[in-house]
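This part of the workshop introduces the protein records we will be handling. As an example, a complete record with its sequence and its structure tokens follows.
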Amino acid sequence: MARRRRRRKQSTVFSSIIVIIAIAWGIFTKAGSDPNGSQFIKDVTGNSNDQVTNTIKSASKSNKVYGGLSQSDYKKLADLNFKSGSRAYTEVNHNRSTLVKSSWKINRVIYSNLDSLNRTSRSNTAFLERRNVANDSLRVRQFVEPTGWHYNHRNGTQIYNRGHLIAYSVSAGIDQSGNYDPSNQSGDQNNPKNLFTQSAFSNQRIQTIFEAKVRKALRENKRVIYQATAVFRGNELMARGVNLQAVSTDGTLDFNVYLYNIQPGYQFNYNNGRAKVDRQMQVNEE
């Protein structure tokens, strides 16, 4: 009897070891094809929330000749609510652009008209090359006040920026009609069609990451299509975020992201852009 109990105990221990090995092997093999292990997490937990993969899946393409996101996808982005402690941006379409590489024909920028509320709610799309990398010393003071704009500091903290959709740093020689003018080597400045009220954090800490990718590609003599779209919810005057996407004609640069328009330590009223202190508001910059 004692011998049978020992055998059953040994069998149970052996089975447990096999199960542990199987789980470990599953994690290892899944991670091989999915470095973040996000799909495996979904398989195990059944959690299909986009917070797991930090990705908005399967975006549909605009019917414009140069592509971009569809209006239904912009609506999905506008409906996203930032949760304190979350990442400052999320990937769209698995970080793949919906722009059409073959649409790059002429060095120019398509600046969309303001909407009925004077907002820059429509996409600006730039067809860029190396000569568009701007000299930063030619910057001047910005005076345009986009919708949702307020006094720039609170208790010594910079809260608001006049956010460029198409960055100053990649728009050298482009005039406000969107055409290249070799006599003007400044980047875009004080253009109402290219500015929106953006948090200082989103503009200076997050958007610059992706603008640097575009500049790098241009300096490597690549041609790039770069599109930026401020995303508003309903009739709100301050954008909830901004969609940035870019693709080089050789395909080596390719990204598609949505940046939340948020500021650590503050909450915005997006209806009018006013900010109030909220020490619980935290942002993950990774």
The mean pLDDT is 85. The domain at 55-277 is CATH 3.40.570.10 (Extracellular Endonuclease; Chain A). The chain has two domains: 1-53, 55-277. The helical segments are 2-33, 38-45, 50-53, 71-78, 200-219.
